[in-house]
Write a structure and sequence with these properties.
The complex is a heterodimer of chains A (about 110) and B (about 120). Chain A is mainly beta and about 110 residues long. In chain A, about 0% of the residues lie in helices and about 60% in strands. Chain B is mainly beta and about 120 residues long. Helix content of chain B is about 0%, strand content about 55%. Chain B contains no helices and 11 strands. In chain B, a hairpin with a 3-residue loop joins strand 4 and strand 5 (about 40-50). Chain B starts with a strand and ends with a strand. Classes of the chains: A mainly beta (about 110), B mainly beta (about 120). At the A-B interface, strand 5 and strand 10 of A face strand 4, strand 5 and strand 10 of B.
Chain lengths: ~110, ~120
Amino acid sequence: GQNIDQPTEMTATEGAIVQINCTYQTSGFNGLFWYQQHAGEAPTFLSYNVLDGLEEKGRFSSFLSRSKGYSYLLLKELQMKDSASYLCAVRDRDYKLSFGAGTTVTVRA
Amino acid sequence: DAGVIQSPRHEVTEMGQEVTLRCKPISGHDYLFWYRQTMMRGLELLIYFNNNVPIDDSGMPEDRFSAKMPNASFSTLKIQPSEPRDSAVYFCASSLSLGQGGTGELFFGEGSRLTVL
């Protein structure tokens, strides 16, 4: 099975940087995803890591260390619209995608 | 191209009634996933299909739940009989396999919000 841990809540100020950590255990790692979910909406894809290192996509970056079972999502130049839940998800060798409980980020003016 | 389409968007029913949720995946996608989301348990994988064949249904809560995928463009999730604890948002998602290029990320439908009284 898979065990995915991430903090429950984080609060940051508009314009600041926030880092959301995710640790995981899985039987056969086959990729890690970050999704964003606004209240009342469906999750939407943000980033994907399958090799170690940093993937940058505009204001969002995601890092992966497979040996440590660790990833983080970095949100820069925070905007009010970034207030949402951020979900870490891990895919195993059987293509099964399991999600963490999500981190609710609140951006304050 | 249309995204994943789910119906109904909202359903309110009484305990004991049968509930059928429907999903049309993105054309060409070969994986289909059913998830359930609640505040208490987050996003739980119920079952997923590859090329219309169920691969893993270990997340299906109990015999009251069943899912089918009769063809590449349609899937159903059925709950019979429904109970109040089944109240949740049910998401369907589809993806391409890695062999077809890309990351294989999931594309989610807008969800079906189920309330069982």
